[in-house]
Specification:
CBS_dom, CBS domain, three-stranded mixed β-sheet, Na+/H+ antiporter like fold, mainly alpha, membrane, two-stranded antiparallel sheet, globular, 5 strands, Sodium/hydrogen exchanger
């Protein structure tokens, strides 16, 4: 079979699986993986093994772009804030996971070296899977942002820890080639080379984007990424670390980071489908049976370690109940990074690492199918994903599609009141975002600016000590304050706010929110409790409501 046929089969199966995921309300990641699984050795066996080798550069490029994006989440001016919130949680997760997996698998019969290697690989969280689910759900809030941060830290630590653990295994077993100093030199060369290549690549991309028109950015980004990926493979550098550093450099040296990531999104969608469908076609359910009790123990120990580690540290750092409960389940997906590191270990020492690779490949089936479901459930249950995003879809059953045709026909003939159909089906609580923060009424101007800088809105609720909305800050008043040299010391959030003209309640019909947005230019409206005192519980965004109306219109139900 020609490679083009393989690619066509994978993309067609992924397209059908994506449509089916609308009916079954599954994350598209899971659907793409299942599509590949059906074409792979476990079922159809339609994909020749050699084609996986041909498609490997595309899947690695997709992974590289995801890691690039993760690196852009760490601007230097935010690292202190990120570190204060994320590092304790990450430390708890990593410590619990490594200890439980290492000790547990050793007691189940693995050698000390194999158990240590499994404990290190258990750290890694699938970046592509996790980030794709978060972006698909359009989630925002503490759980979402911490998930992205911890995924980055996990994989950064996993790459470095793998090299250190491997060095320790070789030294302990007397297998280190050459002297210890030579082995350490090779380790420093690998990690230092990855850092320097990422630094140079990031600076080149930032500089080139300054002098090139945006129309050429996509070619620049793909070309530079492919070149760095090729150099990493040629020089045997950990490409995952390279691209994390590239993203970190770009976000701190370029003024157009958002435009750069938007350019990557234009090709990232196709590469994502290829990545997950190819990855799914490599999964082999027979391996799940081969790993037996040790594999089952690895799944349980890794899951408990991540969930319990985050819960333990969140309880001691005063994190919100949502973070304590749902951040752990959002971190369970595992695939590319762990597979890549396991393959590296096997290439270095097949006798010792072969069984470790089998366990990783076998358990990936579980983590890649259940991981996206748990990540999606985590952001939904924590209130960072509007409920409408999970219950409203553009694709339905064949009978539903036929009904939509006649509904549109009746609407065009004036026989159907479209607004009434929408208002009877949806309430504000189904489109609001529950995970929301406001600005304290006593906050000074610098605190207001910091809040605004990291918000996606242009309207900001001001809260008193009881979390009641006492006003709204809009950009027009904020712009005026920027030109006042005394603002930093004299102005408080309460001085910049205007009384809220309208507020929404969770039980109100969506048509009230629609009418409200027609009368205001604000991009979000606070949602408060029904009973006094009317405390802030959520916001409704114009963009979320617009997306809902567009989807309703396409489905013929609005």
């Amino acid at each position: 079979m020609h490679i083009a046929t393989t690619l066509g089969l994978l993309l067609t199966a992924s397209l059908l699986a994506g449509l089916a995921s609308e009916i079954l309300r599954l994350p598209k990641v899971t659907a793409y993986l299942i599509a590949g699984l059906l074409l792979g050795p476990s079922f159809g066996n339609l994909i020749p093994h050699e084609h996986h080798l041909v498609l490997e550069p595309l899947t690695k490029l997709a992974m590289a772009l995801v890691l690039f994006y993760l690196g852009t989440l760490f601007p230097f001016d935010q690292i202190r804030k990120i570190a204060r919130r994320a590092i304790p949680l990450s430390f708890g997760e990593l410590a619990f996971t490594v200890v439980l997996v290492t000790v547990g698998t050793y007691l189940l019969g693995m050698s000390a070296a194999q158990a240590a290697l499994l404990g290190t690989l258990a750290i890694a969280t699938a970046p592509a899977t996790t980030m794709f689910v978060l972006r698909e759900t359009n989630a925002e809030g503490p759980v979402t942002s911490l998930t992205g941060t911890l995924v980055t830290l996990n994989n950064l630590v996993a790459v470095i820890a793998f090299e250190l653990v491997w060095l320790a295994i070789e030294v302990a077993g007397g297998d280190a080639s050459g002297s210890l100093s030579e082995t350490v030199f090779l380790l420093v060369r690998s990690l230092g080379g990855a850092f320097l290549l990422g630094l140079l690549g990031g600076l080149v991309i930032s500089y080139a984007c300054e002098i090139m028109h945006t129309r050429r950015w996509l070619v620049l980004l793909v070309g530079a990424s492919a070149l760095m990926l090729g150099l990493s493979e040629t020089w045997e550098l950990p490409y995952m670390l390279v691209f994390l550093v590239v993203g970190l450099v770009v976000v701190n040296s370029s003024s157009g980071t958002q435009k750069i990531t938007a350019q990557m999104d234009s090709i990232g969608g196709l590469l994502t489908v290829v990545f997950f469908s190819v990855h799914g076609s490599e999964l082999d359910l027979n391996l799940l049976l081969d790993v037996g009790m040790i594999g089952a123990g690895y799944v349980v120990l890794r899951s408990v370690g991540k969930v319990a580690g985050i819960w333990f540290m969140a309880s001691r750092t005063g994190a919100s109940p949502e973070v304590k409960t749902w951040l752990g389940p959002a971190m369970l997906a595992q695939a590319g990074v762990a597979i890549s590191l396991a393959a590296t270990a096997t290439a270095r020492n097949p006798e010792m690492a072969g069984q470790v690779q089998t366990i990783i490949l076998g358990t990936v089936v579980v983590f890649e199918i259940l991981g996206p479901l748990l990540t999606r459930a985590a952001v939904l249950r924590s209130g960072e994903m509007p409920i409408a995003n999970s219950i409203h879809h553009t694709f339905g059953t064949p009978l539903g599609a036929l009904r939509n045709v006649f509904t549109r026909l009746a609407g065009s003939a004036g026989l159907l009141n479209k607004k009434q159909a929408l208002s009877e089906r949806m309430r504000v609580e189904q489109v609001m975002r529950r995970s929301v923060e406001g600005i304290a009424e006593s906050a000074d101007f610098n605190e207001v600016v910091h809040f605004v800088e990291h918000s996606h809105d242009n309207t900001f609720p001001v809260l008193n000590e009881d979390r009641c909305v006492v006003g709204l800050i809009r950009f027009d008043l904020l712009n005026q304050a920027f030109f006042d040299p005394h603002s930093d010391h004299l102005v408080r959030a309460g001085d910049l706010s205007t009384p809220p003209e309208v507020l929404l309640h969770p039980a109100q019909p969506v048509r009230d929110a629609v009418e409200l947005f027609r009368q205001t230019t604000d991009d979000c409206v606070p949602v408060v409790t029904d009973e006094p005192p009317h405390r802030l519980v959520a916001t409704v965004r114009r963009s979320d409501l617009t997306s809902l109306l567009i989807r309703d219109r396409k489905a013929g139900l609005s």
